[in-house]
Structures are given as C-alpha cells and as structure tokens.
C-alpha cells in the first residue's frame, strides 16, 4: 500500500527563450538525469446523469457544469491517469445515518408536481430560493452522496491517495433542513 514512484528521465540540452530585436536573450542549461517522484493513485467519480438536473432558470447552481467538467477531463486525456468510477447511488439507510427521518421522507416525496400540497412543510425544511424543489431532487442527492461515500471508502482503505468527486462537497445541508444549495450533506 506504499506510494507509487515513477522514474522520469530528462534529456540534456538547452532551453532558449525567443529573442526579440533589441532584447537580451537568455538560455538555461540543464543536464540529463533521473528524478524519482510521487505518482498518487487517483480515483475519479462521475455519473453523466448528474448533469441533467436543474435547480431552475434563475438559480446559480448549474449541475450541467458537472457534465462540462467531465468532458474536459476526458478530452484532455486526464482520465488515463486515474481510476474512473461510475459510483452507485447512496442508500436511504446511508443518508439516514446523518439526516432526520422526517426530513428524508419529505425529500423522497416532494416533487414539482405536488409541492403546492406540501408547501406547509417548506419552512420546516428551509425550502426556498436557495434550495428549490426540482425534478429528480432525491435522485440527485443519492447520486452525489453515493460518489462521496465511495470516494471516502477508497481513501480510508488506502486504495486511493486522491479522490475526485466534482458532484460532491454539498456539505451545507443540516440534519433537519436544506442549506446553501445543499439537500443532503455528503461530507
């Protein structure tokens, strides 16, 4: 379970800056050699569906940015240097380890279609402009929380040195209510 090291061989030669007319050019000499350096085991978590959720037109939280970020990772080839996972959804039991039962029941039941009927509970659970009701809200919570749980397990087990979950870090949610764009605290 030790850290992986990689030997990098550098060629000898000269690096020169481009010279402009009238400027003093410079060059840097370097010699060949080998250097050992740390190569961490990185685990990367992404579910394409996470980018399909929408907090609302005027809301600053845009899960679609997760898809854009994932596409950058793939198109730049960064995934070749990581173990890539499509994580499972967190179970209700895992989420209930921190959150109150009545709050979880509310999150599971409320939808844009029935929110008028459930509006009496909104102040109890801090539902409003920062944390609106949107389609698939409970599923979104399970997706990002599941990825965070899997990432934490890899780190604790020592099978990853670094875990990347762009979906997660939604840590403002409280035991009994939403807060700061967060519904389920995944930290």
Description:
Residues 12-26 have low confidence and may be disordered. By secondary structure, the protein is an alpha/beta fold. The strands form 3 sheets. Strands 6-5-7 form a 3-stranded parallel beta sheet, covered by helices on one side. A two-stranded antiparallel sheet has the order 1-4. The chain has a two-stranded antiparallel sheet with strand order 2-3. The chain has helices at residues 64-75, 92-96, 101-109, 115-118, 137-157, and strands at 4-10, 13-16, 27-30, 33-39, 42-45, 83-85, 162-165. The chain is built from 5 helices and 7 strands, in the order βββββαβααααβ.
Properties at a glance:
alpha/beta; 18% strand; 187 residues; 5 helices; three-stranded parallel sheet; two-stranded antiparallel sheet; single chain
**DSSP summary, beta strand count:** 7
End-to-end separation in angstroms reads 25 Å
Instruction: Summarize model confidence as the mean pLDDT.
Output: 86
Rg calculated over all Cα atoms: 23 Å
Total of DSSP H or I helical runs spanning 4+ residues: 5
SSE blueprint:
Blueprint (H helix, E strand, L loop, with lengths): L3 E7 L2 E4 L10 E4 L2 E7 L2 E4 L18 H12 L7 E3 L6 H5 L4 H9 L5 H4 L18 H21 L4 E4 L22
Parallel strand pairs: 5-6, 5-7
Antiparallel strand pairs: 1-4, 2-3
Summarize this structure briefly.
This protein has 187 residues and is of the alpha/beta class.
